[in-house]
Amino acid sequence: MCVRTVWVGLLGLLAVSGIATTQGASYCSVNTFTTNSSWMQYTKEPVPLEYGFEDKFKSIHCCVKGYRSIEWFKDGVAYPWSAGVSNLILYPEAANQTLYARRAARADSGNYTCRLSNETHVFTHTVKLSILEKPTDTPRTMFISQDQWVEEGAELRLYCEALIGRSLLADARSDLRWRKVFPNSTEGDLLPTQTEIKTTREDVEDIIGSYLTVDRVSAQDYGTYVCVVHSNDVVSKNFVTVHYRYGGADDGSNSSWCGSGAVPWRALALGAAAGALALVSAAALHRRCTPRLLLAARHARARAQPTARRARVLEKEFDVLVCWTAVDGELVRGALLPTLALKYKYRVHAVPLSTQPDTWYSELVGEASRCRSLVAVLSPAQHSPQQLLTALRQLRALPLPPVVVLLQDLPKLKREAKEGGESLVTTLRGTRLVAWRHVHERAFWTALRLALPLPPAHHDTKPIPNETEDNKYSRSGSLTALV
């Protein structure tokens, strides 16, 4: 009897796991945008509202490609969650883009935020999940496309999705469809060139949607469309307008010179000289002032959001993980570490590295999980091109995008390409590099601080117990390093 009970339980678990696998893997791979670009972007419409029912399977998604890392939060609390926060768990086979619960509970309701990042950008998308006790009687719109501006001949894609009410009577109608609004304000069927694709959710059968697509937009496709949702005797309508967008206009740039007098060469020369001087001055001013203004703006935004920022800061034990090899130890301990910690108030975690870069990932991956950012100090002249490529690959494989402080100028990229291959050039160009010049050079510290997250406010800082020898930063010589 016990053996039979165990087998029944295992079969039930496998069945539920199979449902989770099917539902988690398929949603983000069907009805995706038709784009071949590789940068970080959503692969289908980001739905802001989700509904589920108690004791039923439920999944939510964040369909994106081109990202390097993905993090989930519920009401500001980072995943993984305790049972009192949420029962939803990650589905790794869907590249962590899916959360699901086999038996949803009312406590799972809340705001779920996925935060995606690559080397240069960060995306966030919040889904408000509501777990209901029973099916609703009235429709609830979950997503409707915004108004579109489309060039003639381009592709059009509209989407509408809603939670419909469960049919109470045999002849009750529950449906969702697109209709065209004609100039006389009447609604009619779509044109033959317009395709409608109905969708259903595998986790919640009461959630239905519909895509309206046009392969090549023509004059007849412009205008207003309405997504009509019938749920028993209730009708809900959402309108979307497709506007004509000009692909280009004749601005007279191809017109010929029509002047009848002599060309004013002297005036043109003076104007060109003045323009060049203005450009040089603007470039110099931009290079000197823009980084400082950007840094000041970041601090201003942080002061305007103290509560949210404090929560993000305190998620990690340290703000900056600084790593270096023995050859750069004197400069790092005497200048870089004390300046970051004492002047700019960062919580710094120092980790010396071995001379050979082949093991850097294993040395740093555990420590990186405790920190908000990573700074690696390198002397390119101390490494061969192949070692430099290995070092950068080891650092870029970590969950924190590295900021590399170069203590020496990089050799010419053309020569490096011959010795280390084009992979080294590509890796260097895809890495955030900050060149060290002098401890008192303000531009260096501004560039480094722009590449790092803001430090905690003074009231957020806490003394760190059990400070190691490496984290004391050789304080006897640190005061001379402040800038």
From TrEMBL:
Residues 1-24 form the signal peptide. Keywords: Disulfide bond, Early protein, Glycoprotein, Host-virus interaction, Immunoglobulin domain, Inhibition of host innate immune response by virus, Inhibition of host interferon signaling pathway by virus, Interferon antiviral system evasion, Signal, Viral immunoevasion. GO terms for biological process: symbiont-mediated suppression of host type I interferon-mediated signaling pathway. Residues 59-130, 139-243 form the Ig-like domain. Residues 474-483 have a biased composition (Polar residues). SUPFAM superfamilies: Immunoglobulin. Gene3D superfamilies: Immunoglobulins, Toll/interleukin-1 receptor homology (TIR) domain. InterPro entries: Ig-like_dom, Ig-like_dom_sf, Ig-like_fold, Ig_I-set, Ig_sub, IL-1_rcpt_fam, Toll_tir_struct_dom_sf. Transmembrane segments: none annotated. It comes from the Eukaryota. The keyword Repressor does not apply. Pfam families: I-set. SMART domains: IG. Residues 459-483 are annotated as: Disordered. Interacts with host IFNA1. Counteracts the antiviral effects of host IFN-alpha/beta and key IFN-inducible proteins involved in viral RNA degradation suxh as host OAS1. Acts as a soluble IFN-alpha receptor and thus inhibits the interaction between host IFN-alpha and its receptor. This is Soluble interferon alpha/beta receptor OPG204. It comes from Mythimna separata (Oriental armyworm).
